[in-house]
């Protein structure tokens, strides 16, 4: 039992000594028995000793090698742990011994858990980095427009010397940026596709064919990821620009056709039903290209229909233009005649020939006529008050003429069927005649004011109205003077002596001196030469100065002839 409690090293040494001593004694016994000489015995013992030293040396060398290997393993573990800490960007790892204590194997066993932990962390970090870089390469390939991409992890190169959290965050930020760029590109693609579809719907073109022609992946029917490369975006943008230019060209053509239709309708006085057929074309005249978005608004069919209608109306334009020109010429003449103005001179025959030959612009011709009519109506409106007063004056002058004839009738007070009626009319006529002087003065004031404002002479049936009124006033004054003179002369002549023999006084024959009912009632058939001349002066184009001289000469003759 005592030998079991002895230390292993001492026990091994004592056992060795006992074994070697026993063997040495046994060898000496053999030598003694054999009779081996001393020299030989010394030589064998020396060999035995040499072999023992060599055996010890081998064991020592082997132990040294094992120790060196442990030192190397420990150093490599320390270096690997340090390298992992540096690669992962960490300063320390829990469980790593702060001081080196114990044997080499104990130190290796102490560092092994920390080393395993760091290796696991590295493997996990590598997976994260590889996954992020794989996504980066995939999205980059999509942005670049590469249709094929190998997702094999062997194609992903990772820098093992930089696996820090900072580097991983950089990769993640890059991936986030690429995700944003991809989403932005997808949004642009969708915007372009929507624009193409809207433009195609407006013009009724095949949007699906246009989109597929750019790239099949853009068509949802193919069910593949959309190509979002720069080249595709450029093609989409070019297609949208091209469609917008086509839209603008069509709208400009519709605007041109719409204006042409409007001019032709106005020119030809088209009916509401004819205009309603192309109301959508006219509505587009006020639209800008950005305002036109309704499907089928500017199709090629609409343009063709409008072109056909313009062509049809253009063929009817010449005959309708002549009709409208003559109608407007008649309206112009009527407007001028009603207001007693001079009608602007127009060579109707020459214009008709120009319309037939196509040497005159129809719209400009009718616009020019409209301008003439507008100016005539504007001047007629400015003359309206004066013309109304002139009409009143003309009526009063007619009453004056009738009253003169009535006063000259010797039988006006005789008993007849119309005597009382003529008497009442004479009373009314005297009232109207009494207003002539004020009416003429009012017309003169307004006419002169009109002439000053317009800087032109007021013509009435191509004669200056002021001169006509002044001439009339002078004639009227002369007539009044002549009447006074005749009255004075009548007072000087003695009255004729009445015959006492006749019981009854013979009444003058009414057939010789009585004014006809038609003349008394305002007719012009039996008007005196003076009144007929004056009437022609207002209704015919005559020289008014010569007319005044003639009227003065005839008035004196008529007054003398009417005196009994």
From TrEMBL:
- InterPro entries assigned: MAP65_Ase1_PRC1
GO CC terms in record: cytoplasm; microtubule; spindle
Q: Which residues form a coiled coil?
A: 161-188
Transmembrane intervals: none
> Main localisation, per the record?
cytoplasm
- Molecular functions per Gene Ontology: microtubule binding
Q: Where in the cell is it found?
A: Cytoplasm, Cytoskeleton
Q: Give the UniProt record's GO annotations in the biological process aspect.
A: microtubule cytoskeleton organization
Arranged from A to Z, the UniProt key words for this protein are: Coiled coil, Cytoplasm, Cytoskeleton, Microtubule
Q: Which family does it belong to?
A: Belongs to the MAP65/ASE1 family.
What is the recorded name of this protein?
A: 65-kDa microtubule-associated protein 8
């Amino acid at each position: 039992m005592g030998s079991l409690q002895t230390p292993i090293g001492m026990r091994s040494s004592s056992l060795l000594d006992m074994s070697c001593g026993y063997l040495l004694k046994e060898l000496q016994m053999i030598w003694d028995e054999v009779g081996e000489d001393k020299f030989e015995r010394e030589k064998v013992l020396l060999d035995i000793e040499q072999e023992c030293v060599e055996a010890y040396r081998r064991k020592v060398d082997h132990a040294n090698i094992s120790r060196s290997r442990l030192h190397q393993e420990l150093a490599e573990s320390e270096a690997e742990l340090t390298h992992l800490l540096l690669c992962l960007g960490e300063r320390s790892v829990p469980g790593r011994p702060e001081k080196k204590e114990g044997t080499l194997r104990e130190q290796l066993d102490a560092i092994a858990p920390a080393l395993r932990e760091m290796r696991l962390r590295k493997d996990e970090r590598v997976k994260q980095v590889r996954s992020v870089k794989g996504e980066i390469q995939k999205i980059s390939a999509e942005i670049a427009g590469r249709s094929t991409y190998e997702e094999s992890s062997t194609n992903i190169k990772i820098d093992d010397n930089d696996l820090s959290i900072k580097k991983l965050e950089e990769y993640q930020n890059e991936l986030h940026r690429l995700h944003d760029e991809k989403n932005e590109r997808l949004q642009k693609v969708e915007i372009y596709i929507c624009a193409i579809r809207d433009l195609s719907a407006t013009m009724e073109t095949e949007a699906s064919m246009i989109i597929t022609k750019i790239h099949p992946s853009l068509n949802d029917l193919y069910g593949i990821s959309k190509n979002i490369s720069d080249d595709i975006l450029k093609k989409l943008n070019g297609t949208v620009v091209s469609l917008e230019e086509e839209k603008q060209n069509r709208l400009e053509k519709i605007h041109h056709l719409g204006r042409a239709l409007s001019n032709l309708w106005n020119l030809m006085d088209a009916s509401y039903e004819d205009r309603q057929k192309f109301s959508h074309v006219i509505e587009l005249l006020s639209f800008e290209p950005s305002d036109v978005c309704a499907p089928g608004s500017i199709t090629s069919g609409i343009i063709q229909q409008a072109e056909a209608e313009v062509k049809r109306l253009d063929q009817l334009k010449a005959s309708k233009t002549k009709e409208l020109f003559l109608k407007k010429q008649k309206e112009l003449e009527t407007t001028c005649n009603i207001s007693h103005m001079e009608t602007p001179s127009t060579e109707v025959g020459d214009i008709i020939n120009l319309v037939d030959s196509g040497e005159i612009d129809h719209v400009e011709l009718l616009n020019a006529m409209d301008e003439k009519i507008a100016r005539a109506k504007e001047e007629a409106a400015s003359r309206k008050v004066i013309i109304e007063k002139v009409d009143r004056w003309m009526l009063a002058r007619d009453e004056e003429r009738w009253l003169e004839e009535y006063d000259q009738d010797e039988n006006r007070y005789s008993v007849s069927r119309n005597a009382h009626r003529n008497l009442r009319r004479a009373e009314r006529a005297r009232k109207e005649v009494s207003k002539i002087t004020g009416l003429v003065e009012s017309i003169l004031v307004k006419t002169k004011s009109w002439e000053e404002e317009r800087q032109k002479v007021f013509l009435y049936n191509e004669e200056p109205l002021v001169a006509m009124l002044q001439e009339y006033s002078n004639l009227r004054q002369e007539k009044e003077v002549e009447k006074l003179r005749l009255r004075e002369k009548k007072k000087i002549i003695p009255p004729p002596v009445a015959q006492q023999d006749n019981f009854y006084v013979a009444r003058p024959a009414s057939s010789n001196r009585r004014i006809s009912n038609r003349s008394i009632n305002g007719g012009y058939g039996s008007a005196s030469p003076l009144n007929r001349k004056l009437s022609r002066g207002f209704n015919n184009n005559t020289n008014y100065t010569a007319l005044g001289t003639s009227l003065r000469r005839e008035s004196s003759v008529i007054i003398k002839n009417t005196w009994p």
